[in-house]
Description:
Chain B is α/β, with parallel strands linked by helices. Chain B has helices spanning 41-48, 88-97, 103-116, 132-145, 162-178, 190-196, 228-250; strands at residues 2-12, 15-25, 30-34, 56-62, 73-76, 150-154, 182-186, 199-203, 210-215.
Amino acid sequence: MADPKDGKPVPFRGGGFAPKPIAWMGPLVFVTLIAAMEIGTRTGVISNLTLPRPSAVLMTFVSLWDTGLLWKHVVPSLSRLAVGAALGATAGIGVGLTIGLFSHIRAGLVPVIAAIFPIPKIALLPLFVIWFGIDEASKYALIAFGTFTPTVVATYGAVDSVDRGLIRMGQSFGLSGLSILRKIVLPGALPGILSGLRVSLAIAIILLVAAEMLGAEYGIGAYILEAGSLYDLERLFAGVTILSLLGVGVNWTIGRIERRVLRWRV
Amino acid sequence: MDLHLDQITHRYDGAPVLDGIDLHIPTGRIVCLVGPSGCGKSTLLRLVGGLERPSEGDIRQIGTPPDGCLNPLTYVFQDFALLPWRTVAGNIALVLEDHGLPKSRIDAVITDVLARTNLSDFRDALPKQLSGGMKQRVAIARALAVEPAVLLMDEPLSALDSQTRELLMEDLVGLWTRQAFTAVYVTHNLDEAVRLGHRIVLLSRRPGRIRDIVEIDTDLADRRAGQADLEEKRAHLWSLMRDEARAADAELVTHG
Amino acid sequence: MSRFTRRQALGTVAALGALPLIARPALASTKIRLGALRFTSHAASFVALERGYFADAGLDVELEFFQAAQPMAVAVASTDVDYAVTAISGGLISLAEKGAAKVIGGSLSEEPGIDGQKILASNDAFAAGLTDPSKLDGKSFAMTQAGSSFHYMGSKIAAEEGAELHFKPLQKVGAIIGALKTSQVDAWSIVPHIAKPLAAGGSAHIIGNVSDYLPNYQVTTVFTSTKNADQERGQTEAFLAALSKGVDDFNAALVDKTLGEDGADEMVKLIHKYVYADKSLEDATPGIVNGAMRLNKNAALNLASVTDQLDWFKSEGLVKDSIGIDTLVDQSYVDII
Lengths: 266, 256, 337
């Protein structure tokens, strides 16, 4: 038998393809980008037409805070977002459930949903103005409509993915249809519905700007549009930052809800 | 309550799966259905429990279910079918909630069945915290909670490793010995069949017909793994099943 | 063509005669892009192009059409467009502050005695008593965007009347018209060629003239990038001179009406190529004639009006306080009035 010392070590070929959380990486990228913007705009490498100076954006933000204008813009936007998204998501979950549960409704509605999903809701804005006027109703409707379709698709997908074995089990124990829906289908679909909500709510935030194009004196979207038309890059970026923070906040909230109600997940 | 199957024939899209099954399931006995994979034994179990309707023939209940029975024909599934979002107690409560029982009664039933299956300490655990064997014990406890007339067990031990399977078999024997229950027990494992079955029904490969029925009179509690008389029955069954199993194995899969 | 007029014949001869002129080597054509809206108020650009005034000046002008004033300002700042004629907007001032754009001349003006921009009230608001601009207090007033000329006009009118207005940004003129027709906004101010047909069609009521509040209002200006203003003096002067010829023709034909009916008809026909081109000439004519407001001769600029506008933008906090009039306007090109 050969001496084990004569052999060479087996070459290592594993590793990689296993994402690890690296907490400092995200903030580092942000800080680097912002620092590069600040230095670039100060030295003139980046012209003031191209990007605003981050410190000036911060000052804009501070003055928004000091003057109380921040809340004057954020509060109406949040209420539009809340009402619109709540309407759209509730209707979407309801319709998604009926599509998921009843073959006739599925056959009838899935093509309709597929047809309205890709319509840019912004294109329908004039129509919404005729239907709902230029006040809050049309803003709610636009956001609701935008959140509705992705919620429907996510919900019936989630219902489809509920373990049929669990439903058979419910039937075999003689559970009523309502009990099966409430105690098996709904909780089983909840993970899919919640991850669908992440997408729907992001779309709602996007549509907020569109909704505030028409007849909004106050609101983050109106503020951004005004900044854009004034070519005021500091305000534009301050507004966009608020939207980003809003998105992060919504995502965080859903994350918390998920952690709470989906404790049971493996 | 006895069950009686009369000339059961079943087809999927015209293809026969079961053909002319006549079977009697007497009260207080465990009837094992064995056969090569795809012989329609699980289908037969679904027919017996009313989850599917047979193409021909009928299945009758003879006599009345015992007092307090909430769900006469109750399944135990291979994959346990526990709701992952409910605790052990919650999973058992699920099948009691629809019957309008007072909360105290539900709690009492849960406590009782958990005690019978040695699960009292796991009352508030979530399924993800339990091993496979524990999950199946919970599923059995859930089945017992509705005081079934007949337990319909669909390969309940197939998803478990062999040690756990051995332990659960002992548990089942213990449960039956303390309080005899009626069961139809589907398995492809002849060891399980000769350990748990009073009557073993061997099905042929598709379309499933009854090839043989073997009665074992030895008391369940007296049976041990590798016992000579059981080994003999097992060998007999295997000799009948072997060719069927081989032929079945070589078939193209047309229905799962 | 039923009638071959003497003027048309002359025009044809002139056009033929112009051919060799274009080839003059000294004025080898410089390609420039000119931003415009499809409004009668932009007619000078169309005339100068159609009648070859730009070509005579050695400029090969290509028109770029926009939907609104603000994007035009951005296009000039990014040098996608060399020159443009449009209203002074907050965006334009901000771009001037960033050293990207400069106002170099004046164009459309309010002038006493010439039909100018109108103040409109919606039918419901009119029925509820908004019959005069003095009753605007508490009403809603439509504008395209904050910092647009509509915002300026509304504010100035409100200030004059001591009224408090709610401004409704609706982005597009079309959206405003829809909102006004359905009485979702109470009031608006707009050029006569839009105001008059709305009033005539019973969709709204004219309740006043903008010129009563903003006499000599410099509505639109000519502007360009700072680079063109500072470094392309020759080209910019040639452009303004050619544009001025277009202005003269337009004023003579439709504002002062010194060319008689034939002259007016011919001007309308020319403008119709660009404005209301989707309508027949007969249908388009009233709109074009109604929209004829004075364009400043020689692109002269009413600095007082521009200064007032700048001050208003500052007072509203729409632009930075530090901007001086010289940041916005290059006064070296045209007469200041």
